[in-house]
Amino acid sequence: MDCNNIVINNIEEYTQQIIDGKLILKRTIPIIDANSLFKKKIIGSKIIKCKINNCVKDIKKYKELLLYLLFNNLESDLLQDSYLNYTNENLNERGFTYYSKIGKSIQGSNTIMTLKEIIRVIEKLENYSLELQIKLDNNEKYTIII
Fold it and tell me: For 41-80, what is each residue's pLDDT tens digit?
């Protein structure tokens, strides 16, 4: 590579401006912390992009992401101190749905509680990172990194 060049990966994720002779890059989808995100109206939001340990995953729903994390960590004690109601029984009533891949029934929950559970699980797992790009109902977009 020529020492006269500067290479910036993922440049499409930034807008560019030149101010006083300086190149300013601004994220097109700003990073927001979990507390700030939960102050927004996230019910009805959608996952645009999901990266787990820097690998893009084709996961577009919060429940799907939670099940992915649980299935890939069956040996872990992730259900202790959970925000959601789980049971080892095969229940498909009273709001529970049985997921054979993890051998558990999970009671339905809204976006807020499911996302809180995803964050709790990621924080509990060692060597896991999560980057979610989320689009709210009002079309605002944010990135959350755990």
Answer: 999 999 999 999 999 999 999 999 998 988 887 666 777 7
Q: What is the pLDDT of residue 8?
A: 82
Question: Under a CB-based contact definition with an 8 Å cutoff, are residues 69 and 99 in contact?
Answer: no
Through-space distance between the first and last CA atoms of the chain, rounded to whole angstroms? 34
Residue 39's domain comprises: 29-145
Residue 12 domain-assigned?
no
Count of domains observed in the chain:
1
Q: What is the pTM of this model?
A: 0.81
The answer as to whether 6 is a domain residue is no
DSSP assignment of the chain: --TT----TTGGGEEEEEETTEEEEEESS-B--HHHHHTS--TT-EEEEEEETTEEE---SHHHHHHHHHHTTTTS-TTTT-SS-EESS---STTEEEETTTTEEEE---HHHHHHHHHHHHHHSTT--EEEEEE-TTS-EEEEE-
Q: Domain for residue 17, yes or no? A: no
